[in-house]
């Protein structure tokens, strides 16, 4: 299957807890240019408007920081991603932090309202908090709650103000369909740093996580088979690849929240290649490269680029 690729650059970093992820997509482009790759000259590029100026002001939403900026980013992503898909193209999103990925999922669902959307979420973190459970208020820990339309109220601990709730409901309803995905259609890979509220909702909803050990044990081919088997009732699949799923020793600390004992880059690459071979993947996203935090110059972006170049041959 050869599809036209639409590159979508989203430099939002308003939902992260550390600064610099907005430069992640351009660090990947820089890595390509540094090695003489023409990759970014070969596909049309759309840039999503960011709201990073909000970082220069106090936020009014302590349990969902800068939520007011994210609502518009979700809307634009929903439109741009769904338009690309409806045109028969393959949207490839390079984003800053992971908080906007719910907007991408909204776009996939808007393009295929009658189809079941599967999500493969490759990440050190479960990203399934809500304003009611978050310990930090950073929305990059919440995108899957927006896709599932589940606030994990049994674990509620924050008294969320009405103004925040109103915008949060708007965020979850981006594109007019909620929920976008069913819990059984969400598969985690490499999640290994979770809070107790997240463990509870994963148990309540029965969400499957294939840990790093599982991958070491069965290998990429078999794990891809297991994932595809679980998603066999899904018509289309979205892969969300957070670079913090990888081991910082095998990559670098060039990401907002690195966690040890992660995937090797080759494992992440081969696993995604195998899932792509199913022909069901319609959208792919890379997030959380942060060159400001990279102790090895631009190593994380270079690692992401290498994986990306390999995957693009299968699209
Ligand atoms: Mn993430």
Brief descriptors of the model:
315 residues, alpha/beta, Arginase, Chain A, eight-stranded parallel beta sheet, 9 helices, binds manganese (II) ion
Give a written overview of the molecule.
The protein has 315 residues and is of the alpha/beta class. The protein has one domain: Ureohydrolase domain (Arginase, Chain A, 3-Layer(aba) Sandwich). It has nine helices and eight strands. Strand 5, helix 6 and strand 6 form a beta-alpha-beta unit. Helix 2 packs parallel to helix 5 (162-172) and helix 8 runs parallel beside helix 9. The protein starts with a strand and ends with a helix. The mean pLDDT is 98. Manganese (II) ion is lined by residues 98, 123, 125, 127, 242. Manganese (II) ion binds at residues 98, 123, 125, 127, 242.
Q: How would you summarize what this structure contains?
A:
The chain has helices at residues 24-34, 67-86, 101-111, 143-148, 162-172, 196-205, 212-230, 265-276, 299-312, and strands at 5-10, 45-48, 90-95, 117-122, 186-189, 208-210, 236-242, 281-287. It has 315 residues and is of the alpha/beta class.
Question: Could you give the topology of this structure?
Answer:
Elements: E1 5-10, H1 24-34, E2 45-48, H2 67-86, E3 90-95, H3 101-111, E4 117-122, H4 143-148, H5 162-172, E5 186-189, H6 196-205, E6 208-210, H7 212-230, E7 236-242, H8 265-276, E8 281-287, H9 299-312
Parallel strand pairs: 1-2, 1-3, 3-8, 4-5, 4-7, 5-6, 7-8
Helix pairs in contact: 1-9, 2-3, 2-5, 7-8, 8-9
Manganese (II) ion binds at residues 98, 123, 125, 127, 242.
